[in-house]
Amino acid sequence: MPKADTRIQKKNQAAILSAALVVFSQFGFRGSTLDQVADEAGLSKPNLLYYFPSKEAIYTTLLARLLENWLEPLKNIKADGDPVEELLAYATHKLEMSQHFPRESRLFANEIIQGAPRIGEVLRGELRELLGELAIVINGWAEAGKIRPVDPYHLIFSIWAVTQHYADFDVQVRAILGDADPFEGAHAHIEAMLRALLTPAGSNP
């Protein structure tokens, strides 16, 4: 039976992953080096390699944790809940992730821009399957008159686009808004937009 990691080992592993997130989200996988990650973590390169054998190993560990956190909210959409509120809750969750975990969002964006070489199988497998199941639910809501008819895939794509924009294009957003907190207005705007899109005709949005 393998020994459990010690407190110091767990601390160093967490420091390496935290440092790697800073470096990879800024420079991408190709533009980053183990030396940069080690310096950011405050560890020597040999010490870093004791915990992770390669840059690839660190990067894939980060992506695996990120994907687990990002897929969970999709799984939590309840088919028997109020459709508009379920989709609004999902959009709110995604916006809060952009607000509080912008580096993770940029790391994911960089991976996608590179052609998703390390997570392509997950995108074509688990993510596609999840969206397929959700599409059936959304189409069912529309057929029952609970929401307006809407393409379920493009609806989710739109939610991703409008929420992740605030993390992935943070510099542009803040350059335009100046000192204003972009998230103060973003929540209300996205909620109003989705309610108008989804609320059936004749109902109060």
TrEMBL record:
Q: Which UniProt keywords apply?
A: DNA-binding
Q: Which residues bind DNA?
A: 33-52
Single GO BP term:
negative regulation of DNA-templated transcription
Q: Where is the HTH tetR-type domain positioned along the sequence?
A: 10-70
UniProt-recorded Gene Ontology molecular function terms? DNA-binding transcription factor activity; transcription cis-regulatory region binding
Q: InterPro entries given for it?
A: Homeodomain-like_sf (IPR009057), HTH-type_TetR-like_transc_reg (IPR050109), HTH_TetR (IPR001647), Tet_transcr_reg_TetR-rel_C_sf (IPR036271), Tscrpt_reg_YcdC_C (IPR013573)
Could you confirm whether the keyword DNA-binding appears in this record? yes
| Entry keyword annotation includes DNA-binding | yes
Name of the protein: TetR family transcriptional regulator
